[in-house]
Amino acid sequence: QVQLVESGGGLVQAGGSLNLSCAASRRLFNVNTMGWYRQAPGKQRELVAAITSGGTTNYADSVKGRFTISRDNAKTTVYLQMNSLKPEDTAVYYCNVEMERYAGGMDYWGKGTLVTVSS
Fold first, then answer.
1. Residue 105 CA to chain centroid, in angstroms?
2. For residues 94 and 14, what is the distance between their CA atoms, to the nearest angstrom?
3. What are phi and psi of 102, to 5 degrees?
4. What is the pLDDT of residues 61-116, one digit of tens each?
5. Measured between alpha carbons, how far is 24 from 1 in angstroms, rounded to an integer?
6. Model pLDDT for residues 13-34, shown as the tens digit of each residue
7. Nearest CA among 38, 84, 39, 31 for reference residue 55
8. CA distance linking residue 71 with residue 49, whole number of Å
C-alpha cells in the first residue's frame, strides 16, 4: 500500500509564500504524472499544477507565474512553491501520483493539507 503525505500547508498573509511537499511512503518506479489539486469550500476539486515524467509542466491559469511545481524522482516527492499568495488560493491541497499505464496506471492521492491565505 502506498501512502502520500503532504506537508507545508498553513496560514499565511496575502502576498506571502508557502512550499508544499508530498512524499510517497516508499520509492515508486514508473511514475507518470505528479500533480497538485485543490478544493475550496463549496467548490469542486481542480488541478493546480502537474509535471510529467519528462518534466513537462501544466498550470491552472489562476496560478501561472506564481506557483512552480517540481519533482524528485529518487525520493518520489513532488513540490509546489507558491508565491504571491491570494485569499482565493485558500483551499485544501491534495497531491496526486499517476503510474504509467504499463505499470498498472494506478492513481494515488494524499489526504490533503490546508492552505489559508488571509487578506
1. 19
2. 21
3. -70, -10
4. 999 999 999 999 999 999 999 999 999 999 999 999 999 989 888 999 999 999 99
5. 10
6. 999 999 999 999 999 999 999 9
7. 31
8. 12
